[in-house]
Amino acid sequence: MPPPEHWTAFSTCDPDAAAHFLQTAYATGHRLSLPSPPAPGGGPVVAPAQHRAGPLQVAEALVDPQVVSVIDPSDTITVNVIRAGVLETRIADATSRHGAGDVLIGVGPRLARRHLSQHLAVHTLSLPAALIAAAAGRPAEDTERPWDFTSTTPLNAHASMLWRTTSAYIATMLRMPPQALGPLLIGNLARLAASTLLTAFPTTLGGEARAAPYDRTDATPPVLRRAIAFIDANPHRDIALADIAAAAHASPRALQYAFRRHLDTTPTAYLRRVRLEAAHRDLHAGTPATTTVTEIALRWGFASPSRLAAEHRAAYRTLPSQVLRDGH
């Protein structure tokens, strides 16, 4: 399938030009070389097509016939899904070999790696290391403690399938025209990628979100009121649990206790409810001639019209299309 028009395509037989493109695209050091000169009239050495949406970047690349790449550690983590060909990876003294269907960390936060690719077709998804740490429960201000993956491959076959399925879904969503993807949906996709990565790959980030003794005592009505006021004022923004907790002057765990204790729900569930109410108001205010259910769904962070329809019907006992058509 060809890349969408809004993706950036690039093709070159020059290793230096390819390295410059990759270094610019991925904000990390890439040094490329060829084990042997390319054949006269041969195809491109590197031919990636990539697209960035918020903190996420997806790419489909062809690397042919053989390319050696040395990649520095980076604050941007890249996960590879090999479509075809072979990728041999060396980190320190350990060498591993990967083929079609395999999943591995292509760029990590701490160790440089050397890749030897042979007739490689690869799908990549990149996201900030800070987003992964936040998904594990590490406070945003805690930037000093290093972390890394304890394996460059998923935990098991099920974890590998989980990553392949999730990254394919995210890539499909990012094939949509940029104007259709609002910041709420992009933020949701980024957090989905981070949480799936933590589920699929072993890291040293385990146990970051342990409850502190004061979390339960901090789950007070004033904390809840501050959180609700922040959510009610900012449903249009890409906000996460950490943002709500900061506005409420509480830890994320204390905030979760407060919502569970006083409202029998969670902060993120309350945020989804507020966004559903906003979507419901937009459906009332719109007409089929001026807007669509899809536009309203994406505007308020719903991944599809069917997702909005399911939640809207559960809450209001009617479909979004009926409200848009009839105004009630």
UniProtKB/TrEMBL annotation:
<dbReference type="Pfam" id="PF12833">
    <property type="entry name" value="HTH_18"/>
</dbReference>
<dbReference type="GO" id="GO:0003700">
    <property type="term" value="F:DNA-binding transcription factor activity"/>
</dbReference>
<keyword id="KW-0805">Transcription regulation</keyword>
<feature type="domain" description="HTH araC/xylS-type">
    <location>
        <begin position="225"/>
        <end position="326"/>
    </location>
</feature>
<dbReference type="InterPro" id="IPR009057">
    <property type="entry name" value="Homeodomain-like_sf"/>
</dbReference>
<protein>
    <recommendedName>
        <fullName>HTH araC/xylS-type domain-containing protein</fullName>
    </recommendedName>
</protein>
<keyword id="KW-0238">DNA-binding</keyword>
<dbReference type="InterPro" id="IPR018060">
    <property type="entry name" value="HTH_AraC"/>
</dbReference>
<dbReference type="InterPro" id="IPR050204">
    <property type="entry name" value="AraC_XylS_family_regulators"/>
</dbReference>
<keyword id="KW-0804">Transcription</keyword>
<dbReference type="GO" id="GO:0043565">
    <property type="term" value="F:sequence-specific DNA binding"/>
</dbReference>
